[in-house]
Task: structure prediction
Amino acid sequence: MGEGKGKVGGLVGYAIRLENMVTDQTRLIYATTGIVMRMLERSTELADVTHLILDEVHERSIESDFLMVVLKRLLVKRKDLKVVLMSATVDAERFSDYLGGAPVLKVPGRTFPVQHFYLEDAVEATGFKIEEDPRNPRSRKNEWDDNDAELDTESGSGASTGNLQAYSPETKLTLSRIDEYRIPYDLILKLLETIATSPQFVDYSKAILVFLPGLAEIRRVNDMILGHPMFGSHGRHGMNNWLIYPLHSTIASEDQEQAFLIPPPGMRKIVLATNIAETGITIPDVTAVIDTGKHKEMRFDEKRQLSRLIETFVSQANAKQRRGRAGRVQPGICFHLFTKERHDTSMAEQQTPEIMRLSLQDLVLRVKICNLGNVEEVLTSALDSPTPKNIRRAVDSLVDVKALTQDEELTPLGRQLAKLPLDVYLGKLVLLGSIFGCLDAALTIAALLSSKSPFAAPYGSGGEADRAKLSFKRGDSDLLTGYNAYSAWRRVCTSKQHISEGEFCRKNYLSQRTLSGIEDLKGQLTAAVLDAGFITLEPPQRAALNRARYQSYRRNFFFVVPDSYNHGSTNDEICNAVVAAAFYPKLLSRDGKGWRNVGSGKSVKVHQTSVNRDTDCEWLCYYGIMQAGGGRKTYDAHDTGGVEDLGIAVLCGDVEWKMFPGIAAIDGNRIRFAFQGWKSLVAVKVLRRRVGDVLKAAWKNPERELTASQKMWVGLFWEVMDGVGKGRKKK
Result:
């Protein structure tokens, strides 16, 4: 026992070092997979590690499923290795079968008992009634106007009920009129009132947690509560001793912290949250839960190469996690706003794994760099395998990005991208930023897109927050706007100005904590680029980077990217061209008053939160496209940035030069540029070839410094883009 305990202790040491290197669960799993790969490739390395412990395995992220694939191979090689998988709601038998009949141990929980009720019980307890059938189109209100998701199923013909002999006729009638696919807002309010006043439930009313699908629903319920005479509506602190706290990723972390505090004596609280409150965070004093039974799931359409945010019913495992939130400090209650019949017969036991619904690009790249074999064979060996068609589309998209050859072999660029803990687009952005002298902007944008937005919009201040964001607008780009806000925050932190960091963030509707998290992540990305060989730092500069990374609690010191890699970060045209080259073929072209997606040919809108809603740019790159909500067959582009046509002609896709008509055709007829004269065409052709040679050399030997000739061509491209930008501004 003593020897075994010592070896597990060694593993704890690895875990502590990992947590110092990463800031969230995804990167922790990514780093853990790296350790397991080292153990798989070199049996003598880390031989003293005898136990691996993985918690919350039910969440089934892409990273955790890939880790399981690698781990299964390792267990064949390391017979002495013991792996412990833990979860309160996992389908233990499936994992056991996947790992060759591993034993299953059940450990009783220590939470207090939670009484759980269903939709029929909520209607019965509150006396809730629907006077007119809401399925009648004349009476139904459009509840999707302020929603960013669509429902993944059609509206039903009343709730699925089953046996209702124990319930009153009024309850049965109401259930026959309820559309179970819609959020019953009036019933939620009635339930809150009942829990707060009924002798049967009042002892559970100290802290009530309401699970809602997204921000639009949180906002609606928040407004309804504050407008209710029992709870009051004066500011965020209601009358009658009630505190109302919304919890959502777009709300500043500083504002969210209040929800975790135990209210003063005589006060009670209501927390409105998304599924982040299932496992990601714990509010310990919650004694009652109202579960709408819905959440929003991201699903990636490989065929259309776009993401869709789907509102769907939670799984039985999700429901169990939600009601478990009410039993932390005393016995609790939970009202699920779906029927017991639906729970028992229609709801999935577990949530759909990410590997079945998200993009597979990064996973395919990881399989290739790990030399695990044929991509399709590896991915179909996962606990839940994606379809061969989706795997094929992911491979094709990596060919488009130049990370794989037509023969599915890693390109030099693909090998460099696999070294970075980023998706292929952000990884390419950072690498291009190091070559074109805008590394600080590229690193910051990558960190911004890997985090939540630093722009905060507290309730009741949407207009002021929008104006504050627009004050940072730069280069017709959402990304450069975020970079501009970050840079302003950094200047405040490092200079002795008359305004404090906290005051600056409050005035400009920025989240101080989110910006600090972005800075920490940026430090990790800088170290990754350094390790990949794309930048070289002198010993004092390395020391400065380490100081900035490991003294993040002191926000008066930042690592400054050397000027040799950063002289272009202040140039909008260079930054936008680099972003467009990294994200290509994620490009939009002007199409009348709207936009056309270059990759798919579909019509696209710019999202309403973008600084480019009214831009006069002819071209926009984008980071993501999502299908708009409410069943509307429209698509919104997110995180957009303007780009000059010369930047596209030099850096994007494969080009065919047609000298006689004076046309450059990129990737067939995706994009066509016409030149006024053959001299202009030849000049751009030569510049593109020379810059392309620089990039090829950098992908093959990133540690090798650019030659004088290569630097000259990069500098020429920089000057030409700068001139194009100045010419456009004069117009």
